[in-house]
Amino acid sequence: MTMLAEQVDGVIGVDTHRDTLAAAAVSPIGAVLASTDSPANARGYQQLLDFARQHIPGRRCWALEGTGSYGAGLAAFLDAVGESVVEVCRPKRPAVRGGRKTDMLDAVRAAREALATEHLIHPRRRGEREALRVLPATRQSAVLACTAAVNLLKALIISAPDELRVELRGMKSKDQVAHCAKLRDRPTQDIEHRMTVRALRSAAQRIEALRSEAKELEAELLALVRTIAPELLALQGVGPISAAQILISWSHTGRFRSEAAFAAFAGVAPIPASSAQPSSTSASSSSRPTRTALVISSSVLASRTPSSRRRSSSCGPSGHNSGSSTGAALNATRAR
Which superfamily is assigned to 4-116 in CATH? Predict the structure, then answer.
């Protein structure tokens, strides 16, 4: 495989922060040609581009840290002007750094890491992909907050005065929420009773608001997926949230070398798990649960259909079925 050092005349490594950007121009053999810093805004992006054109006027590549966070603005700017950009991972910080840590050293390290890496990481696309990302993230926040509010409501009911506990006992969770949301002040009761009613009403109304917010966000997500990739929703076991996660992770054609690379990214790539005969494999669990869950759930649901069971005899040693909904989902995203 051709290394990046053989394809470019130099690499500009950038260490990104909220307010500043540190950049270093590095030759293909790793020598530092020049360094600079700039503010993290449109004017600073142009300064870095001028710096790169001055010190590496020929073929060049940018190696950025944090293209999904502090480096997102710079990555979008460089992509818009046709520059080649790759992403490098932030280094693991040792417990004791020994005092050798500066932004410029990190910029140089980013450039050298890109030169030495066999498989370069391409930044995720913005636009439609970013629109898909922000909606599930916000919905997930609402769902987690709703779960916390439900737990609070249950705890308040358990410790509530006897009259309130008797009033709510035997109700289903949904009915308890609806009942508590409509509780009215009871001025004739003692202060403990009155404040417990107030707390129950507040928690229940919060639950209803968060559930409504989550439903609205899911509806917007469904409409967006239907616009971007409606073919995903036709697959067995793939709903708007799973479809959105597939599109978010896939990002664009060319980001992953193969289905195997995507499986490794999702945490479901088969790995050797045997010490003797017969040989066997297990799934990798090295990635985020959301990606793993979407791939596994889609595959499991697809395996329950008769057509998938008929195809199971064609599975390879790893148990991968090319006719599964996961493979179909990847084919749908690859066609984009």
Answer: YqgF/RNase H-like domain (3.30.420.140)
